[in-house]
């Protein structure tokens, strides 16, 4: 069964600021990549996908995660592929980490979805809309508070 997990960012958590949130994303990428999962990072737009590509390249060598942008890299891709909503990810991706704030256009494409509920009220409402889309697509829904250090 497909699952969608929404991580709820609490206003007083380390993840409510940009650096803390990015560190948490890197933690999740490493966690799932170490399990052999083929990941897709769905960025907000092309510029953000390029940002995440560069962010992963800047990791210390011992924390490096093999990755590529959509359309680059080896034939079957690396463990992490980065793109954005207007692009189609490779066929072999099992899990998406959604960083886009728009409504999803890939519900049903991935066996597992990781999404976020920010503390900002406007962004929270958009996350609720994505939640409804996943639920309608038949995903088993779960939520996790991330109000702690990773």
Q: How far apart, in Å, are the first and last alpha carbons? A: 27 Å
Which percent bin holds the helix content? 25-40%
**CATH class term:** Alpha Beta
Number of strands: 7
Q: Roughly what is the average pLDDT, rounded to an integer?
A: 89
Percent strand equals 15-25%
What is the level-2 CATH architecture name?
3-Layer(aba) Sandwich
* Main pleated sheet: 7 strands, parallel
How big is the Rg? 15 Å
User: What class would the helix/strand composition place it in?
Assistant: alpha/beta
Total tally of structural domains: 1
Low-confidence spans: pLDDT under 50, at least 5 residues? none
Number of helices: 3
Series of H and E elements: EHEHEEEEHE
CATH topology: Rossmann fold
- Tell me the strand order in the biggest sheet: 3-4-2-5-6-1-7
Tell me the name of the CATH homologous superfamily: DNA polymerase III subunit chi
Q: How would you describe the shape?
A: globular
Give the helix/strand layout.
Blueprint: E1 3-8, H1 18-34, E2 39-43, H2 46-57, E3 67-69, E4 80-84, E5 95-98, E6 112-117, H3 121-136, E7 140-145
Parallel strand pairs: 1-6, 1-7, 2-4, 2-5, 3-4, 5-6
What does this 3D model show about the protein?
It is built from three helices and seven strands. It is an alpha/beta fold and 150 residues long. The protein has helices at 18-34, 46-57, 121-136; strands at 3-8, 39-43, 67-69, 80-84, 95-98, 112-117, 140-145. The radius of gyration is 15 Å and the shape is globular. A seven-stranded parallel beta sheet has the order 3-4-2-5-6-1-7, with helices on both faces. The longest helix is centred in the N-terminal third of the chain and has 17 residues, at 18-34. The protein has a single domain (3-145), classed as 3-Layer(aba) Sandwich (Rossmann fold), CATH 3.40.50. Helix content is 30%, strand content 23%.
């Amino acid at each position: 069964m497909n699952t969608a997990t929404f991580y709820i960012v609490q206003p007083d958590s380390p993840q409510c600021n940009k650096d803390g949130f990015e560190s948490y994303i890197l933690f999740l990428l490493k966690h799932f990549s170490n399990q052999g999962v083929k990941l897709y990072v769905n960025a907000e737009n092309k510029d953000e996908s390029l940002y995440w590509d560069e962010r992963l390249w800047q990791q210390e060598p011992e924390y490096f995660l093999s990755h590529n942008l959509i359309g680059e890299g080896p034939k079957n891709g690396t463990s992490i592929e980065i793109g954005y909503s207007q692009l189609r990810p490779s066929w072999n991706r099992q899990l998406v980490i959604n960083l886009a704030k728009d409504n999803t256009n890939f519900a049903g494409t991935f066996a597992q979805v990781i999404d976020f509920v920010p503390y900002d009220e406007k962004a929270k409402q958009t996350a609720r809309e994505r939640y409804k889309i996943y639920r309608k697509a038949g995903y088993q829904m779960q939520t996790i508070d991330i109000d702690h250090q990773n």
